[in-house]
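Appendix B, example 12.
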Amino acid sequence: MNERPQQIPEVREPLPQVERAPLIAGNWKMNLDHLQAIAFVQKLSWGLKDVGHNYGEVEVAVFPPFTDLRSVQTLLAADKLSLSLGAQDVSPHESGAYTGDVSARMLAKLDVRYVLVGHSERRGGHGESPELVGEKARAAHAAGLVPVICVGETADDLEQHGAAAIPLAQLESALATLPSDAEFVVAYEPVWAIGSGQAATADQAEEVARALRESLRDLRGDDRAAATRILYGGSVSSQNVAGFLRQPNVDGALVGGASLKVDEFTRIVQFRKHVTAG
């Protein structure tokens, strides 16, 4: 399916009131070996324990490289830690002659709950098509994982089509073959903001998140639209996270570089201490 630009949907009747627990997800990208990963998760867990973090109120997930997953899983299980585990990618195939691929079923055996699909670094750097992103999301769901569907526009897309057009088209494509009962998370990551130090404004993030949720009403119905968490990703820090999470349609953050700094990531997780009315 081609990614055709769309218009921002008009706001309709309010969606059902559903409590969406915020999700703060740390994407480590290609950083930390398995020994460093163990030390990092221990420090993160200790830090969150020290500040009395309630994982039932704000879910925290880490997305290590494939080589770290078994070590992190063993630590989480042995110490009964409440962090959720995610993977950065997944094969669209269940098994077979696919050298270098890692299947969703393999990830499920490691107690992985989430998996990123369609991250801009996979779409751009590895040429992943909209169809492939959808196949990966479907494979993740079939194995009992929750796909985190990443969508976002480049600077050129923003100039030519506006902020929401490309993300809406990417979301529609990713959901095209995903079963109607599938649970998923959407992560809006403007490509121009990733790693740039220049995040979108809270209002910009909310505009696109609202458009994505309204589109979900057409694609999956009101109940799924109301229940689905939409994250913002792109130069998230402890200084700006509260502004994003204050928005009604932003339900968490996909954190890149800042998730590799224990103290900073802990502050991001504790965003509610910085949220004020307004």
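The longest strand covers residues 146-151. The two ends are 41 Å apart (CA to CA).
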